[in-house]
Design brief:
Layout (H helix, E strand, L loop, with lengths): L1 H6 L17 H11 L7 H14 L3 E5 L2 H11 L7 E5 L4 H8 L4 E5 L10 H6 L5 E7 L8 H11 L2 E5 L7 E2 L2 E2 L6 E5 L12 E5 L2 H11 L5 H5 L19 H12 L1 H24 L12 E2 L6 E3 L3 H13 L15 H6 L7 H9 E3 L9 H15 L1
Helix pairs in contact: 2-10, 3-10, 4-5, 4-8, 12-15
The structure holds pyridoxal-5'-phosphate (PLP).
The site of pyridoxal-5'-phosphate has 14 residues, from helix 4 and helix 5.
């Protein structure tokens, strides 16, 4: 071990993610304080909404506390209740399913496509029942799911189509941006995503009636937004709702990031491309699997992952990267096999792809300021793979 330490250039400690500070965040937070409104729906929230609406090509965008909150709003807007089913991938973050369970409805987990790791439309079509109300599609690693195929199924059966676009700000499908592809889409600005505000999110809505109701749900079920626009002379409780809107300080930080969305995406895509190029020879020799850009899609450099031979190979890789001070986590424990997934969900079919991917996928460091440390990561990964 000491010998190999001497031989190998040791990394400083390369984390898996580092929150970015682009430039104007503090200036805008000071300005928000100076403007005197710290509660939500002030100037910065409006500017963020407008930016997100523009970036996503959607009808309406509403800032929320998190993508989790946006998904909960989407579940309310789908009018989900006990007995209803929502088809979704099992290979996703827990919030996709929790939003449905909180309405008393049942998440129905189906398998993913082995190339895109997104929900497989053929599997969705197989498991539509008279109780199905919606499809929640996740754009994994920022690459949009096959939305035309999903929209065809949704329209045939009268289902709602919701994008979990937590990872997909700035990505496109057939030239259309994520967020404009379903009836609604949920975005995340958590510090592990591309554009951040610590915690944060947005719901985009492409159906005017839903947008009107969303505004009320987000304001604790009141028509307060209409009151502030002078459309009603007092505001009152008119629908279900909760507190889903963030304060102005969060919005001010986020606005600075949104202004730089394109620069952030370009930088991350160059990291993605550099990883892709470096590992290509190993992929050709079938040593590792690499992300495949789905047909007709552009990504946003959200994530880079390797697919290992099996779970043992992955554990060995992670351990060898850790010895070199580089964090390479994996995810997700498939929801269909998690304790709460078994309790609240339903899994009608085989989950072979999901099970294999969740055993073999490992994520490499990916963040705005990664810079030349990417060389260290690539060298360390090659060493880790050679020792295997
Ligand atoms: C990050 C993430 C979420 C949750 O986002 P928050 O803003 O932390 O609530 C939901 N779904 C997916 C696919 C995610 O990657």
């Amino acid at each position: 071990m000491p010998g190999s330490l001497k031989r190998n250039r040791m990394a400083e400690n390369i984390p898996f993610n580092k929150p970015s500070l682009i430039g104007n965040e503090i200036k805008y937070i000071r300005d928000a304080v100076r403007r005197g409104q710290l509660a939500g729906d002030g100037t910065y929230t409006r500017w963020c909404n407008e930016r997100i609406r523009h970036l996503t090509g959607s009808g309406t965008a509403l800032l929320t506390h998190s993508c989790t909150a946006a998904l909960e709003m989407a579940a309310i807007l789908c009018d989900l209740g006990p007995g209803d089913e929502v088809i979704m991938p099992s290979f996703t973050f827990v919030s996709t399913a929790n939003a449905v369970v909180l309405r008393g409805a049942t998440p129905v987990f189906v398998d993913i496509d082995p190339d895109t790791l997104n929900i497989d439309p053929a599997e969705v079509a197989k498991y539509v029942t008279p109780r199905t109300r919606a499809i929640f599609a996740v754009h994994y690693a920022g690459f949009p799911a096959d939305m035309d195929a999903l929209a065809a199924i949704a329209s045939k059966h009268g289902l709602m189509l919701v994008e979990d676009a937590a990872q997909a700000l700035g990505s496109t499908y057939k030239g259309r941006p994520a967020g404009s592809l379903g009836h609604m889409a949920a975005f995340s600005f958590h510090e592990t995503k591309n554009v951040i505000s610590g915690e944060g999110g947005a719901l985009t809505i492409n159906v005017p009636d839903l947008a009107r109701r969303a505004e009320i749900i987000r304001e604790k079920g009141t028509n307060r937004s209409q009151f502030f626009r002078g459309q009603v002379d007092k505001y009152t409780w008119v629908d279900l709702g909760s507190s889903y809107l963030p304060g102005e300080l969060i919005a001010a930080y986020l606005f600075a990031q949104l202004e730089s969305e394109s620069a952030i995406r370009t930088r991350r895509l160059s990291v993605f491309d550099a990883y892709q190029e470096a590992f290509q020879p190993l992929a050709e020799g079938n040593r590792v699997g690499l992300p495949k850009v789905p047909p007709h899609c552009t990504g946003n450099g959200h994530m880079f992952y390797l697919l290992m031979e099996d779970q043992e190979a992955r554990s060995a890789f992670i351990a060898r990267m850790k010895e070199q001070n580089i964090a390479t986590p994996f995810h997700y424990v498939p929801l269909h096999s998690a304790p709460a997934g078994r309790r609240f969900g339903h899994t009608p079919g085989a989950m072979a792809v999901t099970d294999r991917i969740s055993d073999t996928l490992v994520r490499l460091p990916m963040y705005f300021d990664l810079g030349s440390d990417i060389e260290t990561v690539i060298e360390a990964a090659f060493r880790a793979l050679e020792e295997a």
